[in-house]
Write a sequence for this structure.
């Protein structure tokens, strides 16, 4: 298994531009999570999906952030418009829940820099 | 918010056992304890989890006290590659909320 695949690995964009981060979860996993990591705030859960349905988006910082999961094999996190304070590493993770307790598998992350 | 308490940092000599403590005094009866680690610039990596019995896998051992209010992750023979931030987590439901973790430095 290739694991959780995130793209791009690095993104540099100008303030005000739209940014889209992509995630392909592990095949067969039914839950997907988006996290953001900064030095100041550590790892923050932004949103998570179960069976492609958003369950909890209370961690999404503001309306500029949106996430979708159109099918079981793909999810996006979009920031529009982007701001310098959005600079962070964004991680996607997937897991198989509801069938016992399994660990999350994280992707390698997308390092976003907004200038 | 994270419901666990861990020391900020620890050191361990290479080849020795690393014992990382965690307090989770508010844990409820059906909540598991999870341990993850994050090596610099990588995504967090699952290590082990347990409910009330001690657990062991190829990476580590997890010792949970009888009252379940604390646990210890044991890396039996630490290597330089075990240098990382270690997170102890207990949360109800399906979402993991990370705290600040313990930064373990393994030295030669």
């Amino acid at each position: 298994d290739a694991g959780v695949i995130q793209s791009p690995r690095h993104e540099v964009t100008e303030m005000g531009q739209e940014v889209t981060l992509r995630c392909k979860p592990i095949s067969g996993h039914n839950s997907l999570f988006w996290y953001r990591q900064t030095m100041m705030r550590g790892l923050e859960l932004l949103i998570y999906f179960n069976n492609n349905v958003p369950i909890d988006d209370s961690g999404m910082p503001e309306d500029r952030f949106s996430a979708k999961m159109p099918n079981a094999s793909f999810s996006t996190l979009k920031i529009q418009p982007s701001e310098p304070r959005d600079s962070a590493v964004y991680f996607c993770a997937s897991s198989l829940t509801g069938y016992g307790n399994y660990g999350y598998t994280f992707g390698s992350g997308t390092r976003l820099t907004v200038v | 918010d994270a419901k666990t308490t861990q020391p900020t940092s620890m050191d361990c000599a290479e080849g020795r056992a690393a014992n990382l403590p965690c307090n989770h005094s508010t844990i409820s009866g059906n909540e598991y304890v999870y341990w993850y680690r994050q090596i610099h610039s990588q995504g967090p990596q699952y290590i082990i989890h347990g409910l009330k019995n001690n657990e062991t896998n190829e990476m580590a051992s997890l010792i949970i006290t009888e009252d379940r209010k604390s646990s210890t992750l044991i890396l039996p023979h630490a290597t330089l590659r075990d240098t990382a931030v270690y997170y102890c987590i207990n949360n109800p439901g399906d979402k993991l909320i990370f705290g600040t973790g313990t930064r373990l430095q393994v030295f030669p």
The beta strands of chain B are 9-13, 18-23, 33-38, 45-50, 55-56, 61-64, 70-75, 84-89, 102-107. Residues 8 and 102 of chain B are 5 Å apart (CA to CA). The longest strand of chain B covers residues 18-23. The mean pLDDT of chain B is 91.
